[in-house]
């Protein structure tokens, strides 16, 4: 009887260890399952398989090539409520981009709704194309309304003269992958806006997993200028070519402002 009990105890211990091992393996699989990159087996063509609740295989994805757009004279200018004293909280290198985080305060008003600026980050080269032209750099300004709706403004940049706002931002670099630095200094985001604020707009998705759809995109028609050295600094620190290729339009309406 005692021997039988001993064998049963050993069996249950082994079974328990096996279950814990299986759980650990499944946890590791899930963890690996959520990793993504811009190349190789975890690249964009596999994103829809790599993340839970992914919409990366959806029909209304971003970025796209902005062609066959229509002018809409009823589109109003964006009302920027960016304060020159809003605090730039921190900068981080998440392995996919360089991202700057803002304290609450800056927001825009567009089509009767307010959207708070939460962060901005860089893509090199730009993700959206205009009539087939891809610019060497882009800034994505991510905004969110109280109901959770997302609006992303893309500011295109091309090589030209040195940009003082970029000098300020890059003064907190370099920053290693996985590192975050506190900034806690005021920054006027208006300084990174183009003088010509006509734009294209359409509804798409986030351009990184899980590629959430229903995102309103506003892409400025004219780029800002930055120096070659400033572009190279970001290029050196970010993953090479951290952009997603253009996605099918699938009949979506692309509108261009005219004011």
TrEMBL record:
It comes from the Bacteria. Residues 34-258 form the Alpha-carbonic anhydrase domain. InterPro entries: Alpha_CA_prokaryot-like, CA_dom, CA_dom_sf, Carbonic_anhydrase_a-class. Gene3D superfamilies: Alpha carbonic anhydrase. SMART domains: Carb_anhydrase. It holds the Pfam family Carb_anhydrase. Keywords: Lyase, Metal-binding, Zinc. SUPFAM superfamilies: Carbonic anhydrase. PROSITE patterns: ALPHA_CA_2, PROKAR_LIPOPROTEIN. Its EC number is 4.2.1.1. GO terms for molecular function: carbonate dehydratase activity; zinc ion binding. It catalyses: hydrogencarbonate + H(+) = CO2 + H2O. Belongs to the alpha-carbonic anhydrase family. This is carbonic anhydrase.
């Amino acid at each position: 009887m005692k021997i039988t009990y001993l064998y049963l105890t050993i069996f249950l211990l082994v079974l328990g260890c096996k279950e814990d091992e299986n759980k650990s393996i499944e946890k590791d699989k899930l963890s690996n399952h959520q990793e993504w990159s811009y190349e190789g087996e975890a690249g964009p063509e596999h994103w829809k398989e790599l993340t839970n609740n992914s919409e990366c295989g959806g029909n209304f994805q971003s970025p796209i090539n902005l062609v066959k757009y229509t002018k809409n004279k009823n589109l109003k200018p964006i009302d920027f409520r960016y304060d020159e004293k809003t605090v730039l909280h921190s900068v981080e290198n998440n392995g996919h981009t360089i991202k700057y985080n803002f304290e609450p305060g800056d927001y825009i008003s567009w089509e009767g709704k307010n959207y708070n600026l939460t962060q901005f980050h860089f893509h090199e080269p730009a993700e959206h194309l205009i009539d087939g032209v891809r610019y060497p750099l882009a800034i994505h300004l991510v905004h969110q309304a109280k109901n959770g709706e997302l609006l992303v403004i893309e500011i295109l940049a091309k090589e030209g003269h040195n940009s003082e706002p970029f000098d300020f931002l890059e003064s907190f670099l370099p920053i290693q992958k996985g590192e975050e630095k506190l900034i806690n200094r005021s920054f006027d985001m208006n300084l990174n806006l183009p003088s010509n604020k006509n734009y294209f707009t359409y509804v798409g998705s986030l351009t990184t997993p899980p590629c959430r759809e229903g995102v309103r995109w506003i892409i400025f028609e004219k780029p800002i200028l930055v120096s070659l050295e400033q572009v190279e600094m970001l290029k050196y620190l970010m993953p090479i070519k951290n952009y997603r290729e253009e996605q099918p339009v699938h009949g979506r309406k692309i509108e261009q402002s005219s004011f």
